[in-house]
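ligand=2-deoxy-2-amino glucitol-6-phosphate
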Amino acid sequence: MCGIIGFTGDCPAAPLLLEGLERLEYRGYDSAGVALLHRGRFLVSKTTERIGDLKAKTDKGRALKGSIGIGHTRWATHGGPSAENAHPHLSEDGRFAVVHNGIIENYADLKAELQRHGIEFSSETDTEVVPNLIAYYYKGNFLDAVLRAVGRLSGSYSLGILCCDYPDTLIAVRHFSPLIVGLGSESNFLASDVTALISHTKRVAYLEDGELAVLNPNHVEFYSSEGRPIHKESSFVNWDLAAAEKGGYNHFMMKEIMEQPRAVRETVEPRIKNGRVVFEDIGLDEERLKTFNKIAIVACGSAYHAGMVGKYVIEELLRLPVEIDLASEFRYRNPIIDHKTLVIVISQSGETADTLAALREAKARGAHILSIVNVVGSSIAKASHSLLYTWAGPEIAVATTKGYTTQVALLYLFAIWAADILSTAPKAQLEEMLEGLCRIPEAIEACLEERGRIKDMARRSCYIGSIFFIGRNIDYAVALEASLKLKEISYIHSEAYAAGELKHGTISLIEHGTTVIALAGFKPLADKLISNIKEVKARGAFVVACATEGNQEISNESDEVIYLPPVHPLLFPLVEVIPFQLYAYYVAVCKDCDVDKPRNLAKSVTVE
Ligand code: AGP
């Protein structure tokens, strides 16, 4: 959560920091601030509003002098959103300024210790101990003091640090929280992610956990956690600014919804050669694949829902047991896994703290880790034995859309690839699925063409108080995602239920006029779902069904039907989710909600 940026160069820093913060705002947006170092003093400006307010307050940064500075956009953990709690935080003596992403777990002990030395604190944050600890250890050498201070910290942190005595120097520290260094010409940057600096440089260096960087306008030095100089390769980012901008849409979410045909195509097509799935450099060969006696899928939120589709499909094609866990549960439940377990970790950002911790737990128990990740060079990508990137491009909206569909598409590819190698499913079935997968982008396009209808439906229902999504098998997995999409951005209470489970309690909530959306794509259980539709109709529900074109039976039983193009029955989730991404989007727009930055949320959840 939280986004941090830093700059040292030969031009005014504040406009660059504010521009970068705007691009990082999706990471957290309950307050923000910048600190510039000018003539040995810090100039600090903060807001409890959005970055736009900070720009207005500072005349787009022109009011803040200085060619070196740090900035922060916050997702509150310790202390509510207030000017005092907003970053940057200064040491009590005013010598150091710090921005921080993550959580300092031992901050209470450190704070008490520093208080015993007479240091006074002015915020409720965990972060404020950092500049004060550095000041406590400072004997004239900036790097030494930082090394000593971070040696005392536990938890997760990426830090940007300035010292009044070093007018050009910015220190970056990474420990279990993302941080990259952008290498420019006569200017260098640090940032939580590439989007913040792509308009200035595409050459970046990814810091590893425990590493530090000392940035000056003309050079950057990298150090290990012990302070040993280290060499670091840089790499070029292969996408450009347009990919991180709205491109004419009102919201990133709509842009990203519309990008799905391309994103799925780019994720799938390069991996199909001569009618077979080819994963180059996956780091998982036939011999190792044969050793697994089960698969465990671990993820959070929408990535977990993608994994749920994967569970049904992998079990169907591989006939191997597949467990699925929320990462936050898995990491603390003493899971029964060993070297015979393949753990599939799914994460768009590659930085989700619970998912990363679950990965480490699984790795420590000997499991082989295959990760499905979107962000290149992210912590999860680096920590895995095997890796498959979703080539979705940057996803900015907090509500994931193309991140989810590309994860699902990759899970299908994985299942087909593994079933082909292990000969666990008929070749004809695998070929048919692969052909079907190649046609999915067109089918998604067809769903997107129908957005006018979905918009009308959203307008009619945007003030309902509660809604239920039901489905069976893979439709249930989609129901979970459809429901999350709606509640996270439109704030409508929504539940997703396995259709057969409703009658075990939740059906008592159905009353006259309650909207129930019945997902009916999974043909083998269509009759069972129709019985469930009848059950809720009998209790007064208004039923909207979602089915393939020509399904007359479902139309007879429902009040309204959303028809989708015919696709391979097992691949239906990839089209079925589209109307409900659109539905959530239009409901949120209709209710005037902040679509890209829903309340209380952040894109990348780097805290436990
Ligand atoms: C989805 O719309 C959410 N914003 C959220 O559930 C997200 O999928 C989850 O936090 C996991 O994120 P990750 O894929 O980056 O790990």
